[in-house]
Write a structure and sequence with these properties.
This protein is α/β, with parallel strands linked by helices and 176 residues long. Helices cover 20% and strands 24% of the residues. It has a seven-stranded mixed beta sheet with strand order 1-7-6-2-5-4-3. Helix 1 crosses helix 2. The longest helix is centred in the first third of the chain and has 14 residues. The chain is globular and about 50 Å long. Bound molecules: adenosine-5'-triphosphate and magnesium ion (MG). Magnesium ion (MG) binds next to helix 2. It comes from Streptomyces heliomycini.
Length: 176
């Protein structure tokens, strides 16, 4: 009898379509948003995570510029979601700050956004564990303040495409 093959741990996840970038200023973060916008189309969901002040809204501002939508992207204190209609014929940007959203998707649906989510680009800050059920295809962006001997403005950004929507997309264009 053959010796049992050494136990190989199961693959935790299928190979992720992922890039890691270093961003060194708020302006570069906006530029990353503008580049990201070129990859997005109606129905896409982008989840942004990272601690307070990481740069999630700054990235979204660039996204709004790249998509060519109306109104400045801000982080209003009392508004959970805001719709920015396209100035052209592109999809609207729905910007959600889920920080105060505890009930997940149901609560989000209750927001009565008056837009069709499949026809919008949806960007959600603080959405982990809350909005994943919207779609299994999503772009996950994680922003970390770099630690160590770096300036206050250095961020490490990981962009991961999940689901079939993203398998054929080359995310390395983001670091160009
Ligand atoms: N590399 C950088 N990228 C983005 N923002 C930066 C960077 N360096 C410094 N900043 C500053 O950090 C702050 C980021 O604020 P922003 O509102 O974008 O963060 P946030 O992640 O949305 O925070 P919150 O969790 O409160 O919503 C801004 O004041 C910005 O100028
Ligand atoms: Mg924010």
């Amino acid at each position: 009898m053959e010796a049992a093959a050494p136990h190989t741990p199961a693959e935790p996840t299928p190979p992720a379509n992922s890039v890691e970038l270093t961003v060194t200023s708020p302006e570069q973060m906006r530029e990353l948003g503008r580049r990201l916008a070129k990859l997005l189309r109606a129905g896409d969901l982008v989840l942004l995570s990272g601690e307070l002040g990481a740069g999630k809204t700054t990235l979204t501002r660039g996204l709004g510029e790249g998509l060519g939508v109306r109104g400045a992207v801000t982080s209003p204190t009392f508004v959970i979601a805001r719709v920015h209609p396209s100035l052209g014929d592109g999809p609207p940007l729905v910007h959600v700050d889920a920080y105060r959203l505890s009930g997940g998707l149901d609560e989000m649906e209750d927001l009565d956004l008056d837009v069709s989510l499949p026809e919008s680009v949806i960007v959600v800050e603080w959405g982990e564990g809350k909005v994943e059920e919207l779609t299994e295809d999503r772009l996950q962006v994680v922003i970390h303040r770099a630690v160590g001997d770096t300036s206050d403005e250095v961020r490490r950004v990981t962009v991961t495409g999940l689901g079939t929507r993203w398998t054929a997309t080359d995310l390395t264009v983001l670091s160009a």
